[in-house]
Design goal:
heterotrimer; A mainly alpha; B mainly alpha; C alpha/beta; A: mainly alpha; Arc Repressor Mutant, subunit A; two-stranded antiparallel ribbon; C: alpha/beta; Rossmann fold; Alpha-Beta Plaits; 2 domains; 6-stranded mixed beta sheet; 4-stranded antiparallel beta sheet; 11 helices; elongated
Chain lengths: ~130, ~240, ~290
């Protein structure tokens, strides 16, 4: 269900984008119609339409007239690229600020990250693919 | 349902008639049985010297009043709640009242005729109260007209009282006064004394038929007009069941 | 078939009370609207006038471009659901009340009404006066749906219905609205529960219009700014503040007017936390007796 405080259309759009990035929604796959979405979440179809419009503007979805809304084949890559762009300002910088706020030396943070990188390397060598 | 006002009025009036006429017929049957029982009861004690049916029939006017009260108090709000206008209500009600009253009046006339037959067989005098417009059961048109007028007028009084009380805002007293005036005026006209404590001042037998009818209208029309004026923009209150 | 509503300079006075005072707004049809207001704000009066239950004391009320009051072409297209007593008598049975509706309302869908009565388990044989409060409300909402009118108004019709019943009903309302678009206005106190259904909300207070806004846009307009008191004060200076709370040196201010990306970064940089504000909270502070937003 939705957090009933922030705009619902934004939450819907964010959820669709998350599904696209995670692979739950594939490129050129059809998403639920506005009415189906509205009925499922018990919200006004106009709200869903607004979310879809935003996603169309952001080129995450495209519309096939008379059929419905589809995930753009380039959406996943584009979204991941966008998240990569903001990764450092939106994720790393706040993490560092938090580490500072709670008193963790940055050296420890770096050590932890290197440890995780080693694990990745071992997994790759063991032949398992990492996505 | 078609859009024309006449069709709407007719269809609703027809609906009311279909719903209510059988009920009224049944009521009449019960009434007739009751009058018969009362007649027999009286016969056991004293010699019968006058009609029982006619005085009983004049009591039916209170039943008509009740109908009028019921229509405005109960049916009008439901009408409006279901998307009908007050004018549609008034028109359908008027048609229904006139027709239903005619049917009941016809039944009462018939009953009086039956009683006269019974009385002849039993050798009882079939005396009619003096203030009536008619003086024997055989004057069918006059009997019918009297009963019909009585029912229509008293139903209208019911409509008027209900309208005043429902609307409130100080209309209660004026409608009571108007109702009393209607009773007095039409009472002289139709030969039915309105209320027990209002004695007939004018001897109705002296009035020509046209004069009686004029009095009826003189009493009825202001009542009907006042009802229309009160109902046509009456606010519909919320009612908890 | 959808009907638009145009209200201009609407006034309603009865006895000594001014229930509606120079109210003006326009609702294009075909949407679900929420009508919000405190007790005594004039919601019921407004709905009564829209449905022709009352005559306006002044101003105009147009539905589909035509006056409503005593206009049969319009009133038959409007259905207002309020108390159960509107629909029938205490002594009338549910089945009889349904029958009356079918005879008086040209567009009445009897099959749909029957299906809903069965589905929501309203006892058909019972008298209206014998129904529980929840059952009466359910029946009222069934009438509102089965009337299938292009303009359907619900005046706090879910009193007494428990949460699961309301949820079931809202599913039904939504499904029917999507299948047959019309104009629906729902007046309610359950703002946060129902607001997802509303495309637009109209807020009235003391008989006047406070605002009319797309629900989502209104939602986005509120923000809770929390942090050290001085930082908060600096940030909210010059903005519309609906409410302030302070605990020790931490202050929280409810701001009204929307914050763009730049302001959000400013807030973050100043060490302030930004959170959304529930519509119900916005509503409470927009309709305060002390006059709402400064």
């Amino acid at each position: 269900m939705f957090d009933d405080r922030s705009p619902i259309y934004r939450q819907i759009a964010d959820q669709v984008k998350a599904d696209v990035v995670s692979g739950a929604l594939d490129g050129d796959e059809q998403v639920m119609s506005t009415n189906q979405y509205a009925a499922y979440y018990r919200i006004n179809p106009a709200t869903v339409a607004k979310a879809f419009q935003q996603l169309v503007d952001e080129q995450v979805l495209y519309k096939k007239r008379g059929i419905g809304m589809f995930v753009s084949p380039t959406a996943r890559d584009a979204l991941r690229a966008r998240r990569r762009e903001h990764f450092f300002s939106d994720v790393v910088d706040p993490m560092v600020a938090e580490a500072r706020a709670v008193g963790i030396p940055l050296g420890e943070v770096v050590a932890r990250i290197e440890h995780l990188a080693d694990q990745d390397e071992q997994a790759r060598r063991a032949g398992r693919e990492d996505r | 349902m078609s859009d024309r006002a006449e069709d709407r009025t007719w269809s609703i009036a027809r609906l009311l008639l279909v719903t209510h006429l059988p009920f009224l017929l049944l009521c009449w049957a019960v009434f007739a049985a009751a009058v018969l029982v009362v007649t027999i009861g009286i016969d056991l004690r004293v010699t019968i010297s006058q009609s029982v049916w006619d005085p009983a029939a004049s009591i039916v006017r209170w039943f008509a009043l009740g109908y009028g009260l019921y229509f405005v108090n109960r049916m009008l709000p439901v009408y409006v709640a279901h998307g009908r206008t007050r004018h549609e209500f008034l028109r359908s009600m008027a048609v229904f009242l006139l027709v239903a009253a005619a049917m009941v009046a016809a039944l009462l006339t018939f009953g009086l005729a039956l009683e006269s037959v019974l009385y002849r067989l039993m050798d009882w005098p079939h005396r009619i109260p003096a203030e009536r417009l008619f003086d024997s059961a055989g004057q069918y048109p006059l009997v019918f007209l009297s009963y019909w007028a009585m029912l229509v007028i008293w139903a209208t009084i019911g409509l008027l009282l209900a309208a005043g009380f429902y609307r409130s805002e100080g209309w209660e007293l004026p409608v009571i006064l108007l109702a009393l005036a209607m009773v007095m005026v039409t009472g002289y006209g139709i030969g039915f004394n309105g209320l027990p404590f209002l004695g007939a001042v004018v001897d109705v037998a002296d009035l020509p038929l046209a004069g009686s009818l004029a009095l009826c209208l003189a009493g009825l029309l202001p009542g009907a007009a006042a009802t229309w004026a009160l109902v046509r923009d009456i606010p519909i209150r919320s009612r908890v069941v | 078939m959808t009907l638009g509503i145009e209200v201009a300079g609407l006034r309603l006075r009865y006895r000594d009370v001014t229930a509606l005072d120079d109210l003006s707004f326009t609702l294009p049809g075909g949407r679900i609207y929420g009508l919000l207001g405190r007790n005594g704000s004039g919601k019921t009066s407004l709905l009564s006038v829209l449905a022709g239950f009352r005559k306006a004391s002044g101003g105009t009320v147009l539905v589909d471009g035509q006056p409503v009051f005593e206009n049969p072409g319009i009133t038959r297209q409007v259905c207002l659901i309020r108390e159960t007593g509107d629909i029938g008598d205490r002594d009338e049975r549910v089945g009889e009340a349904l029958h009356t509706a079918s005879r008086l309302r040209p567009g009445w869908d009897g099959d749909y009404a029957d299906a809903l009565v069965d589905r929501f388990e309203v006892p058909r044989h019972k008298k209206l006066g014998e129904l529980s409060l929840g059952q009466r409300s359910t029946l009222g909402m069934i009438f509102g749906l089965a009337a299938r009118t292009p303009l359907t108004l619900f005046d706090e019709s879910h009193l007494g219905m428990d949460a699961p019943s309301r949820a079931a009903f809202h599913d039904e309302l939504l499904a029917d609205f999507m299948a047959r678009p019309r104009t629906i206005v729902v007046s309610t106190h359950l703002i946060d529960e129902l607001s997802p259904l509303f495309e637009e909300v109209v807020i009235i207070d003391a008989g006047r219009l406070v605002l009319q806004e797309e629900t989502e846009a209104l939602r986005a307009r509120g923000a809770d700014v929390t942090g050290p008191a001085e930082a908060v004060d600096r940030f909210v200076a010059g903005r519309t503040v609906l409410r302030e709370r302070q605990l020790g040196r931490t202050k929280s201010a409810m701001v009204y007017g929307g914050l763009d990306e730049r302001h959000r970064r400013q807030a973050r940089d100043a060490g302030l936390d930004l959170g959304p504000v529930a519509l119900q909270d916005l509503f409470v502070h927009l309709t305060q007796p002390s006059g709402g937003p400064r």
